[in-house]
Amino acid sequence: MSAAPDTQRENQSFAETALRLGGKSDEEVRRTGAMDKADEQVEKLFAERLRTTGSPVHRAVWERTVPLDLFRPPPLPDTAPCDAAMDRSLEVVRRRRDAGTLYDDQGKVSDATIDDLSRAGYWGMLIGTEYGGQGAPFARYARFHTRMSTIEEMVAGMGSVHGCIGAVDPLKTFGTPEQKQRFLPRMASGEARSAFALTEPCAGSDLTALRTTAVEAGDHFEVTGEKLFITHCLPGRTIGLVVMLRGQPAVLIAELPPQETDQFRIVRYKLHALRRGYNNGLLFNKFRVPRENLLTPPQGNGLTIAYHGLNLGRVAVCAGAAGTMRVMLASILPWAGFRRTYGQPIAHRELVKRRIARLAGLIAGADALVAWCSWLIDEGYRGELECIVAKIFGSESLKESAVELLMKTHGGRAFLVGHLFGDNVHDLLAPCIYEGEGEMLGMAFFKSIAKEHGKAFFEPIGRALQEHQMKGLNPKNPAHLWRLRRELWSYGKWKMGQSFTGRDRAPVSGLPAGLQGHVDFARESFARLRTEISAAMAKHQLKLADRQCRMTELSQRAQDTVVLLVTALWAGGQNNETAVAAADILCQDLRRKLTGKRPSDRYFRDVGKLADRILAGGFEALAGVHPSEILMRYESQ
Ligand SMILES: Cc1cc2nc3c(=O)[nH]c(=O)nc-3n(C[C@H](O)[C@H](O)[C@H](O)COP(=O)(O)OP(=O)(O)OC[C@H]3O[C@@H](n4cnc5c(N)ncnc54)[C@H](O)[C@@H]3O)c2cc1C
Q1: Is the C-beta atom of 440 inside 6 A of ligand 1?
Q2: C-alpha–C-alpha distance, residues 126 and 153, integer Å
Q3: 137 φ/ψ angles, rounded to the nearest 5 degrees
Q4: What is the pTM of this model?
Q5: Which residue among 50, 186, 290, 360 sits deepest, i.e. has the most Cβ atoms within 10 Å of its Cβ?
Q6: How far is the CA of 402 from the centre of ligand 1 (A)?
Q7: Per-residue pLDDT tens for 506-561?
Q8: In angstroms, what CA-CA distances link 150 with 67, 319, 323, 473?
């Protein structure tokens, strides 16, 4: 175990302290500590009540009463000034899709489409009107992103890369007035389109391994290094470029030249995903970026900036999934009606109905999470925990829908060129990896939930162990208990308080009994999780960071509980019976997943009824979504 001097100790983050006390190497402590510090710096950008500890999920886990009001976004206003540009943008993509002119001769979204979108105001959606943008609130943008994804997922993705994870959000949030004035009007008009270059060949999950470096050279920085997997990045783009500057991560706004040069080259490789767009590596060799293009956050460093935009991007992943899953359902329905086996359309079969109902449930869940998270962002919350739930649910639902529901229902035709599954399978799976691989994010989610509880009770125990030169705490050893009496008493008091906690059961006004049952279940589940998370921390103490499978398991249960609660409350605000039934099916699925119970016959009947309603055209979520063509048709006898 390496001891740290007192001054160093004061500057240590919780993760550093825990790892150091747990006996980890200096290297691991330093790297993990750097990420934890970046996270703490992001926290400091927000007022106390809007930070992670004030967030709906954190409060639901640790407070006695789940703050239901923070899980129920109000409805969006009927209209907003940005609507006209949204309608124009949707119209451009619809018109070009119908005319067969969306793509160029390489099958990529064409420059002509991009120019039409510029005229429609598409690229300025998330930029303020003072810079020529549409000033769309994020909640409205997220719903629009779902609609765009039902027409062309790649155009939707280009919009969110530009506005959420690209240079727009860093400039809006961290740019000086001069930087905003210099870049944002051109970004709003589409003259400059952006991307975000963070990942490197040696640094993906581990962002402390970044090697691309900027050094001062007069009035410029010279950037040298390599980036990998950068989406929608081509010569001429204006990108958020993460570099190491004076030993710290920093973000530069880099204007890439219109052609490759000796200082800047594109690294081309063949990638299965993003076939309608671009994804490249970037190679820099003393590439010059003006000094005035450095973004300086009020707290922290470049990772603070990167973390900020990623939250928006994560909600956009879920919003995109909500759109693409609609397209999948619209592709399953006509096929299920057409395809007959053993004398019956497969739409009449229970197994196929279950898939239709499940897909509708996943759409309801994704819609609910998007409405909730985007509202929290507009309300000024940091929203890290909530956006992680949305990203994981959206990407995992897309994967499940693609493989378990779409592919299986379409059978062999799923693999034909021209089929939604066969043509797009890599794009349907890739969201599980980009903007953070799901299980890695799940662990980050757990650590954020556990952090304050750890600081309050387990860090003092760890420090006491170190002071008394004890390797661990043996609760059966009276000498151990005596030495740590103060720290253990404090934790014991918290535990005792839990035993006397009453049940949180106030009914939600106007909520039907079935949905109220889901809300009550979620409240009880949060209370159980509170004690289970604390028990896992008590059991594994400073070694918990190594118990990744336990953290992931607890994290998944917490995420499922959040999805259950948000979906049930969302359903309470829906007027469409089919949407409510779809949400109810997802909630039932989640409850069974959380309890391990087998499905009842009544559940199967509910599933069948929901599928029949959807087959009869009763699912409003599919309004305006194009059904896909049935491939390899044949004459019915
Ligand atoms: C289609 C696509 C588009 C992308 N677009 C962009 C973009 O625009 N800009 C950008 O900067 N990046 C982009 N990326 C990169 C993406 O964000 C990274 O691929 C992702 O963060 C994972 O990093 P990696 O691939 O280096 O995984 P690695 O770091 O190689 O990790 C591989 C796997 O190992 C496991 N693992 C790693 N570390 C641990 C650990 N400590 N404990 C347990 N398990 C671990 C995880 O399962 C992880 O997924 C894109 C990627 C793809 C595929």
Answers
A1: yes
A2: 18
A3: -60, 150
A4: 0.95
A5: 360
A6: 21
A7: 899 999 999 999 999 999 999 999 999 999 998 887 788 889 999 999 999 999 99
A8: 33, 10, 5, 56
